[in-house]
Write a structure and sequence with these properties.
Number of helices of chain A: 15
Distance between the termini of chain A: 65 Å
Oligomer: homodimer
Number of strands of chain A: 30
Largest interface: A-B, 51 and 51 residues
Helix content of chain A: 25-40%
Structural class of chain A: alpha/beta
């Protein structure tokens, strides 16, 4: 059997002849990215065969060197192989997030009632005459705090009871989870001042964020975010479902979700010097497919008609059941989903708005790899989803990256149309372009006549940054930066097309949903924009490229990562949890693909800002103004 | 460090100097019996030191050979040792029990409603228009069968759902446990005709019995019983609590309870050729201390004033939490206790009676190593416990053994007072004396003038079987049996004293409880005798020795192992479970040791049949009749 060695890692494995390279890599513990889920369509899992023989089932992109092959569609031959790969180190892209948008809305209006309630009890001493057991006396004290008909004692907790109860003369800390009429005792402690934490998780398709909160004070201790390790198994949801079609690969996708969350937990606990054992609660929100992956449940039937999820909601799971690196007896709460592609991230997210209280019509748009739209008011709420792809999170773009230090978030031109400045996060050497950056850049390109409304570089645009090689053109950013090879940072027409498709998916979802509801843009009084853009999102530019509808500026509110902030509210507030359950049952899920006009709406939106100029009068004016003057 | 080798097993270990021999044996995996729990008082953990040096902290019985030492009070010295031990093989004493007393009382009067309910569902196919998830549709069908407000899905079950649901077009078998308003889904299966079993367990101090039942038909498949492996750690409850005073030894006592149950389960599943995975429910009954050991919870505070148990009852535990070798997701139900020394074996046991329904006064006596008494009627129920020791289960007697093939259960004398026949179970070569045997034998001894009412051999009794050596006397049974060494089977005065103490404990508990209730023997209309005696118990002889009160014979009913039969009812019948919970809260636990007259009652009962002859007029007449004629 051939031996396959991977460079530069130096890891190797022995495999059967005809094993695919990516499978050999997995076996050797080498993580290769498979954005399309291994279908051979994205042509991005490129590796170089240094020695040995391989059998190619599909060809790499035309201009690749001869040694380059697709790892997902190339098999190991009879001989030993040496293969050069580009491995991810996800921790390189992890960052701490600020608490700018950390609105603990519900907690402001009620007592702190976290998911797992820390209760300090003073349990009376045992008496010969009443004969009450230790459990009886603890339950008696708990009954004064939580009104339930039964309390479940896991044996591990019961085993600690006799000694814990007698260490501090009956004073002890208990951690209780309540589910309806039933309570579950997660832990008991004789250390009364033990710090107790919880985590809120937004499990996004591309980006995962974890917030760590003190359950005793309600304070947020830290927020960390990073790439979802699952992107190795497919960039969008459908690719990942395809990837996870066997039990073995399902487990892999599952474990990557868990290891991503655990990686971010590690960052938070190391930074704040706390023990994972002190984390007793987790609220996890994500789209419906992500929740299936989180629990290791096949999402296969989500992609086949009638698109049936295995579950929308579960009352609770235990941290150790899913492998979270926190206290094994911690309770994990999975935000309820409302449709096959509208998940708990949305039911958590709209908690950060007031749309369900107001009489006026609100539009909630969560821009991520999976885009979700909610339209409604206090009387009704419609929700739908669309697949935007990862362009707005720095994926699917040649030089795309997360919005971290080194990401270009804007570009400045002088009156002559020459690029004079790159705005880079952290004022660092530019390394790539983030999601808000690509929006701002394309808006400027349109306004400066660098690209046309179909997303192609304008033939006669006299910009020194545009490089043409045959029929291909790109705009190069990094000219003049020391230490950066020329032409390392660019946007090409394929990148622009990816953004065009992404914005068309979101915008056409909005128009289709409005049409379904018999409403128009004029009816909208408020637009909530959610997503991981951070402070660099420019609403104006997002309107100019046609991602968002052209409404008066004061109607827009950017609320940041609503899924994460909603999850924080759920972690800390009982009111939020009750409200979320109500909203989840109130929201009507609309399956866009079942609506006949979605496809034509999508096609109409594949143009900057839109084929229908009446929808974007000011944007059209802006785009044409400069060109009229200069071209 | 010295090396210690144990013979005949040939197992060895390396230990620190000064390690006690029994600890070295444990380390080497050699099981030594420590009837007193390692206190050095019972002098029965004798081993022979073949070579090496040891340090004796206490002396073995006077007549022991010089090489014999107490394993619990002798330490390894500096040199390597070779030690001869007598190891138990518990399986040698395991037997199948008949179903003679297997009264599925409640099941006769209601539909079969086992602890874990097997439900075959026909789940509707998913629909695009209602968008129900797999869980929604299963819960919808379950709601038609079990009325609960929430159903808990363990992730392991959820993971199987999408495929299970689609294998038989929505037909599937579910196994559901209901606790109040809450249900727990133990398993789902696409094999609709999968056999489903449950077990009922009587976890006795000395003897453990397991019944295997088919949960679909309610039929009992088999019953097996054997010694509790915990007897190695102490013969009675107090010795075992003493033994388990550190976490390490607590875990040992705990694991011996589990391995005893698992050993009997193995016997049943091998015999009946079923898979342990098909066992989904367990009801376990035992005294309060046993239940603490079962769950690995320290019983330390049960022996210290105010004798507080950690728990009386728990809603449920999972089989895998306690290590039962059945389906890991099976539910284990622990019978509720009512007092520090009156446990779930009694609340299960009285289900086999009608005492809680009747207006007349009933007495329930469960004779085991821990004796329990319940006195009452439909209006009140008083319960108390006493420590009888294992004499009635074949323990604490030089030649005691379980009531299995080879056990002497009775003895016959001719008119001349000569022993003419031994009645042996299975008509086998006698190997020992069982619990009912010792009762029958001592009753005959009394009636034949072989022992006096204080339990001593009568000085001038001219019986050829009595052998005297100095001040010690014994009655030898096995004269003339081929292959048995002379004098191998006997009863000595120490044995008789142990029985005297045991019967005094039980009888004085009865009288003290009656006195407490302001009642007399004349008020009793019915006496239920429970225990593992089997068909060889002779009520008449039990009265003659003063174990049971002298009431007219028709008032007595022997109901066998009521704890096991009650547990079977609990396994199969919801009505039994509801009734047990009601009874457990209705029973008043009386702590005998807190009553001033218990000790004097006990002392008064240390005489055959009793110091107060008025309580046993017929027995006294029987005892004196033969003596008047012959002596």
């Amino acid at each position: 059997m051939p031996r396959v060695e991977f460079f530069p890692a130096g890891k190797f494995t022995i495999v059967d002849e005809s094993t695919l390279i990516f499978e050999a890599a997995q076996k050797a513990g080498v993580h290769l990215a498979l954005p399309c889920g291994g279908k051979g369509t994205c042509k991005r899992c490129l590796v170089s065969v240094l020695s040995g023989d391989v059998v190619r089932f599909e060809h790499p992109p035309e201009d690749s060197p001869p040694s380059v092959v697709l790892a997902c569609k190339t098999a190991i031959g009879q001989k030993d192989c040496r293969i050069q790969v580009q491995e991810w180190d996800f921790t390189n892209y992890d960052v701490d997030e600020s608490y700018d948008f950390c609105d603990k809305k519900f907690f402001h209006n009620e007592l702190l009632k976290p998911l797992v309630l820390p209760c300090i009890l003073k349990v009376p001493a045992p008496q010969l005459d009443d004969g009450k057991s230790d459990v009886d006396r603890v339950n008696g004290e708990l009954a004064k705090i939580v009104q339930v008909s039964s309390i479940h004692w896991p044996i591990a907790v019961l085993r600690m009871l006799p000694e814990t109860l007698r260490t501090e003369q009956g004073r002890m800390l208990t951690l209780v989870y309540r589910s309806g009429d039933h309570a579950h005792l997660c832990a008991i402690e004789d250390k009364l001042d033990k710090p107790i934490y919880g985590i809120a998780v937004d499990l996004g398709t591309t980006t995962v964020s974890v917030a760590l909160a003190d359950l005793l004070s309600g304070d947020v201790v830290g927020i960390a975010s990073g790439y979802n390790e699952q992107i190795i198994c497919g960039e969008d949801i459908i690719s990942r479902i395809h990837y996870a079609r066997t039990q073995k690969y399902l487990l892999e996708v599952n474990s990557k979700a868990i290891s991503t969350i655990n990686r971010l937990i590690s960052r938070l606990i190391e930074k704040n010097n706390i023990s994972p054992n002190n984390i007793y609660a987790a609220v996890i929100s994500g789209n419906t497919t992500m929740m299936h992956f989180l629990l290791g449940v096949t999402p296969e039937y989500l992609r086949l008609e009638p698109y049936t999820p295995a579950f929308y909601t579960l009352d609770y799971v235990f941290a150790e059941e899913i492998g979270l690196s926190i206290n094994p007896h911690a309770i994990a709460y999975v935000s309820p989903a409302v449709g096959s592609y509208v998940g708990g991230d949305i039911t958590a997210g709209i908690l950060c708005t007031d749309m369900y209280n107001e009489s006026g019509l609100s539009l909630f748009v969560d821009i991520g790899t999976n885009g979700e739209i909610v339209l409604g008011n206090r009387d009704f709420l419609f929700a739908c989803a669309c697949s935007a792809g990862p362009a707005f999170e720095g994926g699917g773009i040649s030089c795309g990256m997360r919005a971290i230090d080194g990401a270009i978030y804007d570009i400045e031109f002088n009156e002559e149309g020459e690029m004079v400045k790159l705005d880079v996060i952290g004022d660092a050497i530019p390394k790539g372009i983030c999601g808000s950056g690509i929006i701002n850049i394309l808006s400027k390109f349109l306004q400066r006549g660098i690209i046309d409304r179909s997303g192609k570089f304008v033939e006669n645009a006299q910009n020194p940054n545009i490089k043409r090689e045959g029929r291909k053109a790109r705009f190069i950013f990094n000219t003049g930066y020391e230490g950066l090879p020329d032409a390392a940072l660019f946007v090409n027409e394929q990148d622009i097309e990816n953004v065009l498709r992404a914005k068309a998916a979101v915008f056409s979802a909005i128009t289709t949903l409005l049409e379904f509801a018999g409403l128009t843009f004029a009816d909208i009084t408020k637009v909530y924009i959610a997503g991981g853009f951070g402070k660099f999102l420019n609403i104006d530019n997002a309107i100019t490229i046609g991602l968002l509808p052209e409404l008066s500026y004061e109607k827009f509110t950017y609320i940041g990562n609503a899924s994460l902030m909603g999850s924080l509210n759920l972690l800390l507030s009982e009111k939020a949890r009750t409200l979320q359950a109500e909203l989840a049952s109130k929201i009507t899920y609309i399956n866009l693909s079942a609506l006949s006009n979605y496809h034509s709406q999508y096609t109409a939106a594949l143009f900057f800002p839109h084929t229908n100029e009446n929808l974007f009068p000011s944007s059209i004016k802006k785009i044409t103004a400069y060109r009229k003057m200069h071209i």
